[in-house]
Amino acid sequence: MPASKQNNARLSSPVTILSGIGPKKAALLAKLGVFTLEDIFFLRPRRYEDRRNPPPLCDIEPGMITPAVGKITELEIDDGMMDAVISDKTGSVEIVWFTDKITFLREGMTIAVYGQVSDKYLVPKFTHPEFEILRWRKKPTLIGKILPIYPGTADLTQRALRKFVDTALYEYASVCLKEFLPKSIIKRRKMMSFHDAVIEIHHPKDEDTFIRARNRLAFDELFLLQAGIIMRRNSYSGTIHAQQLTTGGHFRTFMDSLPFSPTDAQRVAICEILEDLERTKPMNRLLQGDVGSGKTLVAAAAMLAACDSGAQSAIMAPTEILAQQHYLKLRDNFSRTGLNVALLTGSLKARERKKILEGIADGTINIVVGTHAVFSEAVNFHSLALVIVDEQHRFGVLQRNSIIAKGTAPHVLTMTATPIPRTLIMSVYGDLEVSVLNELPPGRTPVKTIALTPSEMRRVYTMIRARVKKGEQVFWVCPMIDDSERDLAAVNSTYERLSKILSGVRMSVLHGRLPVDEKSRIMQEFSAGKIDMLIATTVIEVGVDVPNASMMVIEDAGQFGLAQLHQLRGRVGRGKAESVCVLLENASITPEGRGRLAAMVESSDGFELAEMDLTQRGAGEICGTHQHGVTDFRIADIVRDEKILMLARDDARVLLENDPALTKEPDLRREVLRRLGGVLELAATS
User: Fold this and answer.
1) Do 680 and 229 meet the contact criterion of CB atoms below 8 Å apart?
2) What is the pLDDT of residues 243-252, one digit of tens each?
3) Residue 166 class from Cβ within 10 Å (0-12 exposed, 13-18 middle, 19+ buried)?
């Protein structure tokens, strides 16, 4: 290969730079997410096969997956199949290949095979194994080593994938895989070099060396993320000053008029937030609390501090139903304060929308509650100083930034009812201060959870009739709107079925495809007690507050994740009646799905369930952050690698305290910006 071609190679170079990869092979690799040299360097094997020590043939038994070496002593081709016997000094084994095209094999050849030994025959027999002819002075590729097994795709064999990876490693690793971590950290942590770690991931020598390599690459990913987060925070807080917000008459009037005493956790959270608001550094705080823990009260306190300081607040919700819930609750709560609260959604009529936009622009509207409509260019705030984002993982990074940009360095409070595990806060949300509500306010009753099979459906109907007879209400949740090939329960067909079975029960359907006005009308009627049972999709997952609802039925519950099941369960237990959540199994429920239902029955602790959910589904899926460099780690696992994450966080903090712009570590700075600049919005200079 010409030296110039090698020297000009970059991690971003296309895979077609490798010999043997043309447009067709590149298209196949693209299906695996491999487009560049960097992608192929980090094409992580999904497993490994230890082929180092082929056993004597006499020790091979049915059921084993093993390598074997022997001389062909018998060979026969018949009816589209090839049968062979290989022998060594200890014994023999049979081999069958389901093809007659391996015509180059001959008796007397020594071959290596690898595969599963079938247990269908009286004697050990390899069934269609990989094989290789062993030749003098030629190093075998099939045995004598630990072989990587890569994610596969049609028309691209493991042998071809290994060849492409090895070509990249042999020709370009020394040029492209340059060290970027500070030498002091590598020495103190006794780390393997970056170059050697990548090689080891593809060609492990032994278990201990492999673990060292894997931990080095996991540390890299976690360290780069922590460094990027700290740089973003330093850049943001060092150059921008927020309006200082302090409490006054509106805040005191509201708090004094509460008909209950806030929990200790609410008081602590309010104090933490008010301290942040009094600073010129913009607040960036995450308020997390289990369903029903009283986040709205804490958010209201923050908004009142803004109003008392002559500033505006905006609270964003991911759905119109949730936005409307927030609006009605805030309007009622602030009725004694004289503050002007407005609801801004996409479904507003032109005249009403114009009036609200004018009030936002001239400052007569103090608090704006809205959905994505708040992001539109037509919305101009008079003095936006506080932004509250509810269920913030449901908004994209750009959407959040759009509303933040409408103020002059506004304070930001993000809220979630999905408890976020500590490891995830440390990584993805590393630049946020965190307040936790871990107590339930007075009046919240524990929800009993039971899991039932399809054969127990009559019991469910009996429970519903009893609840409705007592004047209580029921949610029935389905995973689908219409019937589908996936054989899952759908709201429309469920409504038709239950209408016949539960005659006399007033029921209605709610799902995302309904017009906004229709959804609002149905929710208002349900809240007013005019509907006994609401058959809905997960549109009611977040924010719906109907204290009279005491029963939640989740059909095909095994289809949902733990966090979502817990959110749905949180829609009941908000009143004085004893509440129940019924998890209905599907006949085709998976073992994993049944395990989730068992966890729900055993635990009502949202944080415990969130940890389980994180382990099962991954950070990105839970938090809506499937973005390169944030939670789509190639190597790191934030659950398993918590200790590494803490080391990386500490090292990044110490390094950036002494060198905030990484001017003394230009290679590291370039790598942080290269991997994370777009997602974390780091400035090119700080």
Assistant:
1) yes
2) 899 999 999 9
3) middle
